[in-house]
Amino acid sequence: MLRKLLIGTMLAGGLVAGYSATTYAAGGSVEVLHWWTSGGEAAALDVLKKKLESQGITWKDMPVAGGGGEQAMTTLRARVTAGDPPTAVQALGYDITDWAKQGVVGDLSDVANKEGWDKVIPGALQNFAKYDGKWIAAPVNVHSTNWLWINKKDLDAAGGKAPESWDELIAVLDKMKANGIIPIVGGGNAWNAATMFDSVVLSLGTDFYKASMVDLDPAALSGDKMVEAFTRLSKLRSYVDDNFSGREWNLDSAMVIEGKAGMQIMGDWAKGEFVHAKKKPGEDFVCIRFPGTQGAVTFNSDMFMMFKVGEDKKAAQLQMASDIMSPDFQSSFNVVKGSVPARTDVPDTAFDACGKKGIKDLAEANEKGTLFGSMSQGYASPAAIKNAMYDVITREYNGDIDPKEAAKELAAAVAAAKG
Q1: How many Cα atoms sit within 13 Å of 110 on the Cβ side?
Q2: Is residue 285 located within the same domain as residue 326?
Q3: 242 and 163 within one domain
Q4: Do 239 and 120 belong together in one domain?
Q5: Closest CA to 52 of 311, 341, 319, 310
Q6: Contact indicator for 305, 137 with CB cutoff of 8 Å
Q7: 132 and 243 share a domain?
Q8: Segments forming the whole domain that contains residue 207
Q9: pLDDT over 90 at 3, yes or no
Q10: Are 200 and 232 spatial neighbours (Cβ–Cβ below 8 Å)?
Q11: pLDDT band for position 356 (50/70/90)?
């Protein structure tokens, strides 16, 4: 399956003008720290492993389970403190910036300038992949978080129409509940609940999302709209099963795939699980933007941040960066992963209906100015602020505080985290 995808998408990638593959290493090794441990994620990562191995580069795998990457960052801190960082580390948003400030990251500018990354990587991604004018990370993809994944049979049994508004969403959830299935899954840990909340906030308006999640405006954080956002989050929680706590996102996806649950609010990495299970969009599942968010995109981009390594490892590191940014890899990897290419010049030929929609939506949001870094994924605010938000959102989701208290505490938590 992966071999066919790789060959097909290499042909598609070969149509991209102006790119020529560069060889930096024939042999060597790369040690890669990541948290891609689910079935769909592992299948996607295998595309990169095989590409490097075909060039004689040995892949030393260092997986750290945990969908949000928090455990991986803890492991990384220990390695860097010991003076033994991996060659490359999967990282998100402000985590990359924080590491760059410590002066421990490598410099990919030679390969980036030679291959013209500046011309094909959106500025919103370059803000994190570069630091102090130097390229320090290679963006693998663009994920967007404001997706709703629905089991097609369960939707048909609930009337067949995908919801386009909040009221329609609630009506479908009620019908699913009456049909005896779990209407919606999610919220098993802090980043998961925050991912759900991301979409809810965006559904109340792009201006509101920018003011509250990006600009961190105290009035937006504590106002009536934020109370409404938490009220809606509580409403969604009322449809989730009692066994949600501690359950990882991919297990939630499996419940939707199997028809045990009707839907899931999750980034498009969830599609990788559907693809891995040989499910097809339109036939087995439905992918739509969370009701009220069409035309806007909250994004994160998985990037491989490169650390300072010895000269004996530098060539393999540069080869890995070059391979990641090649059009053929950007297509083949993202077809399997569920995301869309970080390069804007990769054809959508090899992508399924959800992938084509993702590519189109990203371009539209980028053009309209409604492309926002996702709060839940660490692309809207630095880690200290994100984690402060996580705490309040999780407490409200679990019923420890009510929506009014949550809005008040959210503003206070952000103010304290900003120092």
Answers
A1: 10
A2: no
A3: yes
A4: no
A5: 319
A6: yes
A7: no
A8: 147-298+368-418
A9: no
A10: yes
A11: very high
Q: Which residues pair with 299 in a beta bridge?
A: 144, 373
Among 398, 407, 404, which Cα is nearest to 234's? 398
Report whether pLDDT(21) > 90.
no
Query: What is this structure's pTM?
Result: 0.87
Is the pLDDT confidence value at 139 over 90?
yes
Q: Tokens for 402, please give them.
A: 């009510």
**DSSP state, residue 389:** H
User: Residue for token digits 């300038």?
Assistant: 113
For position 41, what pLDDT does the model report? 87
CB atoms within 10 A of CB 165: 11
Query: Are residues 259 and 271 both part of a single domain?
Result: yes
The Cα diameter of the chain in Å comes to 63
Question: Which stretches of 83-140 are assigned E, i.e. beta strand?
Answer: 88-91, 130-131, 134-135, 137-139
Q: Which residues contact 209 (CB under 8 A, 6 or more apart)?
A: 201, 202, 296, 298, 372
Structural domain tally of the chain?
2
Does 15 have pLDDT greater than 60? no
Question: Is residue 30 over pLDDT 50?
Answer: yes
Residues 137 and 270 in one domain: no
Burial of 33-67, coded b for 16+ CB within 10 Å and e otherwise, reads bbbbebebbbbbbbbbbebbeebebebeebbbebb
Q: How far apart are CA 91 and CA 302, in angstroms?
A: 6
Average pLDDT, stretch 236-244?
98
Pair (182, 253) in one structural domain: yes
Which residues make Cβ contacts (< 8 Å) with residue 340, sequence separation at least 6? 141, 142, 144, 268, 334, 351, 355, 358, 359, 362
Task: State CA 163 to chain mean position distance.
Answer: 23
Q: Which residue has the tokens 């100015």?
A: 369
Condensed to tens digits (0 to 9), the pLDDT of residues 158-209 reads 999 999 999 999 999 999 999 999 999 999 999 999 999 999 999 999 999 9
Per-residue tokens: 335: 């077809």
- CATH number of the domain bearing residue 85: 3.40.190.10
Q: At what angle do helices 93-101 and 383-397 cross, to 10 degrees?
A: 140
Residue 400 CA to residue 406 CA, distance in Å, equals 9
Determine the number of helices (DSSP H) and then strands (DSSP E) in the chain: 20, 14
